[in-house]
Each structure stands twice: as structure tokens, then as C-alpha cells.
Write a structure and sequence with these properties.
Layout: H1 7-13, E1 17-22, H2 26-41, E2 45-46, E3 55-60, H3 65-84, E4 91-95, H4 96-101, H5 105-108, E5 114-117, H6 124-131, E6 154-158, E7 160-161, H7 172-176, E8 180-181, H8 184-196, E9 201-205, H9 222-233, E10 239-242, H10 252-260, E11 264-269, H11 277-282, H12 289-302, E12 307-314, H13 321-334, E13 338-343, H14 361-384, E14 390-401, E15 404-411, E16 422-425, E17 434-443, E18 446-455
Helix pairs in contact: 8-9, 9-10, 13-14
Bound molecules: iron/sulfur cluster (SF4).
The site of iron/sulfur cluster has 10 residues, from helix 7.
């Protein structure tokens, strides 16, 4: 049994309510979910909104300077609401901002009661208990089983932490540390438990998923992990999606696994960042336009009908007009279904930040906008190409549409929270259902669907 105070002890004092605010990427969503699960097991409850909360946890992002700024602004807004409110509410700042700027923060943000680095989030129960003065009442439960509180039919699952690549523009290895693969048994155990709880899609994430297993004993590879996860989702008719595969990670074994294992979606996310060999080398990445072209041609040949997602960066230090045009032409030629475009951001402590040939801000924005315009054109066209198909759709939620409430879901070719959605008339299905849908129309990245008849 977990050693913790009995829930009756907490209940008698009123279960303290925790507000969770998550900024940044899906990896942070998973971390918040794990903290939430730990706190709920310890007897805390989740607050619906700020005025209800006894304590607020802000899980921050520091990938870019703009994300750090947003994290601080959100924290300060909560602090302000707290001081203006009926009662004050302590704020705990977690995740990437404390990991990156830990030692400087207590003096710079006196409004925050405690800072928890990403690597220390397992101790969240002790921290929250302490800021509420309940450390003698609440004892953190020992970890037992899987720590998730997922609602709905789609869940992100982390397979690794950190990154060893040290791309010259990126602060992640300094924030999240060196690459650590999560044990296969842990990943499979979490997936199985999620499936038992009603999840039907697992999205495997990490900073660099292709190298999973390299630091583990034995000859472990992502392809092998996918085959094990596929066995876990098969009895439930589940899907597996993998994000963040670096080009070098696309081994023969992995390509064959994506092609041959039905549960693994032919949805391939390879962030290229750039195609010019000179820019890639300056970014601390390998590759050339020829190598990338050969890789995508091979993927198209071996995995017919696949969907391709990528990421491109505009305005890296030293990028010339010709190199910017080279990236534009490359993306146009490859006709990626989905592309995230970033404008280079000079991140403190990275090697690229110290490069002397920073691109003028106006030029950077112009190049970024050109890429965004192109990728929207390609993305809208890829989306409309699905009109007329009958697909399985996972229903994610309800939203207010132009004609009243509607259901929002996503199909196999749409990664949740990234690639647009399928819209269905409200009442046709419930959140968490997996339904057969006829796609009848599209607008931008969105598709309109009609229920084809019953749950899939
Ligand atoms: S692969 Fe490069 S860009 Fe991605 S997290 Fe690692 S260092 Fe950053």
C-alpha cells in the first residue's frame, strides 16, 4: 500500500484544490498529467478555474525566448488575480523555465512560492503540501502503477527525456539534459493501462524518438518498441503515431515496421529545419538536399499513401537569400502535408546565439512569412485531398461552431493538437468515441464530416 495520510484526513480539512496551467508542447502536457495524477492520488482535487483553486501549478515552456516570456506573463497574471481575489493562492512554477533559469528565479519572481525543475517534478506532492503548510498532513504516495489521468481517446506517451544532438540553435539539451530512453516495459505498461482506460490512439513523443533504445542494454530499437506497443494496442483496435523522428533515425528496420505493422500509422514527422548542406552543418545537423530528397523519395515508394509532416526554420544566422530560396523550393517540391515554420530565435546560452552573422529581424520575418504562405497553400490542398474518403475519427471534444455546438475530432492523418480537425454535428457521437466518418468538405486545415453509421 502507498504510505500516505488517509483521504479522510484531507477530506476533513477539505481536499485542497489545484489549478493546472500547461504551456508549451505535448511533452509538457504529459508532465502535467503525471503531476496531476500524483496529486490526485495524494488526496488533492483539481480546480476548474483560478478562483476555485487553493494553489496553482504553472508548467512552463522555455524552448524560445517568446515562450519564456509567455510563461512568466501567465504566472504574473495568476499572481495578480490571486492578490486581488478574496484569498491569496500560492503559485508553483514547474518545468522548463525553472530548469533553465532556476537559480535566478526566486529573486526575480518573488510572487512565486516554489520552483520545481522538470527533473524534480516527481516530488510535486511534497512541494505543494509544503507551500500550503500541509507537509505534516499529506505524505506523497509511492509510485504504484501508471500515473496518468487521460480523458478522451487519444494520449501522448513519452518514450524518452532530453536530447544529445545539441543543434546549435536549441536550448533543449541544456534545459532537459542528455537523452534518456524510457524502459520498454514502462512504455508498454502505460500504453496498456491507457487502452484499458478507453484510449484508442497513443502518440509516442520525445525530443528525438528515432534513437530510442540506444542508451539501453541489448539491441533495442524504436522499431522493436513499436512492435511491442502494437501488440498492446491490437486487442483494442488502437493506433500508434510517432512524432519527432530525425532524418538519421529512419532506418530500414523502422521504415519496414511503419509499412508492415497495421497499428503504426503511416504518418511520418521528420523535422528537417533546413535543406541547405551549409546551413544544416552550421546548425550542427547533418544532411544535404540530395540526401533528404532521397530519403523522402524512398519513404514515398515504400510507404504508399503516407502523410509527411516537417518543420522548417527561417533566418538562421548566416542564411543567405539563396539559401532561404533553397528551403522554399525544397518544401514546395516535396509537398509536405503539414509544415511548422519557425523564425530563428537567438536563444541565450546556445552556440548559434553567439554567431556574428545574425539575420536582420525584418528579413527573418519576411522569409518566415513566405514559408508560412507556401506551407498553408500545401497544407490546405493536402487537407482537401481527403474529401470523399471514409475514415475513422477519434472524437476529442465539443466546440462552439458557426451554427452552434459541434464535435471536434481527428483522423489518422491529423496529429492531435497540430494538424487541424474533423468537425461533426453535435449529438452524433460522444467525446472519446471512435467513429466512421465520411469527409464531405474542407476549409483551410479543417474537414467537415458526416457520421457513416455507428461506432467504428
Ligand atoms: S534534435 Fe536538435 S532541435 Fe531537436 S531537441 Fe534536440 S537539439 Fe533541439
Amino acid at each position: 500500500m502507498a504510505s500516505r495520510c488517509s483521504s479522510s484526513t484531507i477530506a476533513s480539512a477539505g481536499a485542497p484544490r489545484v489549478l493546472f496551467v500547461t504551456l508549451g508542447c505535448a511533452k509538457n502536457e504529459v508532465d502535467t498529467d503525471r503531476m496531476r495524477a500524483r496529486l490526485l492520488r495524494a488526496g488533492f482535487s483539481a480546480a476548474e478555474d483560478a478562483p476555485d483553486a487553493d494553489v496553482a501549478i504553472v508548467n512552463t515552456c522555455s524552448f524560445l525566448a517568446s515562450a519564456t516570456q509567455e510563461s512568466v506573463e501567465v504566472t504574473l497574471e495568476l499572481a495578480e488575480a490571486s492578490s486581488e481575489g478574496v484569498r491569496s493562492r500560492p503559485i508553483v512554477m514547474c518545468g522548463c523555465v525553472p530548469s533553465r533559469y532556476g537559480d535566478d528565479l526566486p529573486s526575480e519572481l518573488p510572487e512565486v512560492s516554489a520552483f520545481v525543475r522538470a527533473e524534480d517534478e516527481d516530488g510535486i506532492v511534497g512541494v505543494v503540501s509544503s507551500v500550503l503548510g500541509l507537509e505534516d498532513v499529506i505524505v506523497a504516495p509511492q509510485d504504484e502503477g501508471v500515473l496518468r489521468t487521460v480523458e478522451g481517446a487519444s494520449a501522448f506517451v513519452k518514450i524518452s527525456e532530453g536530447c544529445d544532438r545539441f543543434c546549435t540553435f536549441c536550448a533543449i539539451p541544456y534545459i532537459r539534459g542528455r537523452y534518456r530512453s524510457r524502459a520498454a516495459e514502462d512504455v508498454v505498461g502505460e500504453v496498456r493501462s491507457l487502452m484499458e482506460g478507453g484510449v484508442r490512439e497513443v502518440v509516442l513523443i520525445g525530443q528525438d524518438t528515432g534513437v530510442w533504445g540506444r542508451d539501453l542494454e541489448g539491441d533495442q530499437t524504436l522499431a522493436g518498441l513499436l512492435r511491442r506497443v502494437a501488440r498492446a494496442v491490437r486487442p483494442y483496435g488502437g493506433w500508434i503515431r510517432v512524432l519527432y523522428l530525425q532524418p538519421e533515425g529512419m532506418t530500414d528496420e523502422l521504415i519496414a515496421t511503419i509499412r508492415d505493422v497495421d497499428e503504426v500509422l503511416p504518418y511520418i514527422d521528420i523535422p528537417i529545419q533546413h535543406c541547405s548542406a551549409r546551413v544544416l552543418s552550421s546548425m550542427g545537423r547533418s544532411g544535404s538536399p540530395e540526401e533528404l530528397r532521397a530519403l523522402f523519395a524512398r519513404l514515398r515508394k515504400e510507404i504508399p499513401g503516407m502523410v509527411l509532416r516537417t518543420t522548417g526554420m527561417a533566418g538562421f544566422p548566416g542564411e543567405t537569400d539563396e539559401e532561404a530560396a533553397e528551403l522554399y523550393d525544397f518544401i514546395q517540391e516535396e509537398e509536405f502535408d503539414y509544415t511548422s515554420v519557425f523564425s530563428y530565435s537567438q536563444e541565450e546560452g546556445t552556440r548559434a546565439a553567439a554567431m556574428g552573422d545574425q539575420v536582420d529581424e525584418g528579413v527573418k520575418l519576411e522569409r518566415t512569412q513566405r514559408l508560412v504562405d507556401l506551407t498553408e497553400q500545401l497544407g490546405f490542398s493536402a487537407t482537401s485531398s481527403h474529401v470523399g474518403e471514409r475514415v475513422r475519427v477519434i472524437v476529442d471534444g465539443v466546440e462552439e461552431g458557426a451554427d452552434g455546438p459541434e464535435l471536434i475530432g481527428h483522423a489518422w492523418f491529423q496529429a492531435p493538437d497540430s494538424d487541424g480537425a474533423v468537425h461533426l454535428a453535435a449529438g452524433e457521437a460522444a467525446v472519446g468515441d471512435v467513429v466512421e466518418v465520411d469527409l464531405v468538405d474542407s476549409f483551410c486545415y479543417e474537414l467537415i464530416g458526416e457520421l457513416a453509421g455507428g461506432e467504428a
